[in-house]
């Protein structure tokens, strides 16, 4: 089917709107199925458009669509950590984790597939996208902690905690979302303070950061 | 070259010995290069044997050799955590981490490639091997903690810590093995106690485990 054959309703959407409609459809499919189990046909059906139209927007096929959906999910995830630098620090972390866990909750299977890798369409490019989100999360935390030049110990502590949060999210999905989201959030915040406290005994920079946490 | 054309020195090794010689050669190559940068030629050269011989043992080629090397590394890693259940708990954890970090130190690039995935030869099978090691590590810890039926909070805490240790290892390799291995080991043990302490305030089982830690 040529693009001209599309119904008028199709043409009303701009290229950007159409693209974003297709990505939304793809994301909602990836949310509940592993990427290798989602076909372009499925995406076309979910978006209520023809398969050729999906190909027109993603001529690279499934891999391109998957990567675009991943980018879009990554953008959403980055947005979770985008918290104004105002007010006490720990409540900011609470709010960011609330948004993050809501995202995990809403994208369960797709989130697992995304992070656990091992999917047939995984490549070093998709790994790089996920790593970019991790790095962005670490940068956000450093900015909130008001640290412009984090030393190796503080940096490692923050990155370890981010990885632990990611692991917790996957386990949480695996365990039927137990404990409840609010408990998980508080637990993760407490763990953050606990690991910073451990590092603070070895690292003056982390000790300084820790002293500002309860401000 | 047919196997018969091999020099007499080749024939002196048993099938098992030969296989293990080839795996050692492969592991030492994977230790310093990403799997996709290692060819069967390289393995043959490193082991001082002919390429056809490598193919005879690994007819599936590179992917089969990589998986076999991965299995062998996984076995070695599992061995790190195989600590007798005698004496105080924290020194046991120290010893296990010493062995683990020595493994990481000796296999640096190969270890990163193994865990970070994103390699062209990565498949869900190799991911499953790595996950098996994580699970084995968690089981070892539970056995040392004398817990036969860990609840979700204790289980999640232990698995999060294992992931954090893994992340720390990768960051450590990335940061030119700073801080020194002994400091990293003590720091990881202290973090384990700290996160258990956080969980103990929410979970009676973890509180009981924590009270035995200093025994």
TrEMBL record, chains A, B:
Residues 16-76 form the HTH tetR-type domain. It comes from the Bacteria. The keyword ATP-binding does not apply. Pfam families: TetR_C_46, TetR_N. InterPro entries: DesT_TetR_C, Homeodomain-like_sf, HTH-type_TetR-like_transc_reg, HTH_TetR. PROSITE patterns: HTH_TETR_2 (PS50977). Gene3D superfamilies: Tetracycline Repressor, domain 2. The keyword DNA-binding applies. Residues 39-58 bind DNA. Keywords: DNA-binding, Transcription, Transcription regulation. This is Helix-turn-helix domain-containing protein.
